[in-house]
Amino acid sequence: MNSFIRTPRVAVALAALAALALGDVPAARAQNNGVSLELHANENVSAGTIGLPHFPTSHPYKNSSSDSAADVGFTFGRVHFRVMASKYTTNASADQVLDFYRTPLARYGEVLECEHGQPVGALTTTRDGLTCADAHGHHSHVHADVDSPHELRVGTPERYRVVAIESAEPNSTQFALVYLELPKDDDAH
Question: Where are the domains of the chain?
Answer without folding.
Answer: 42-70+78-188
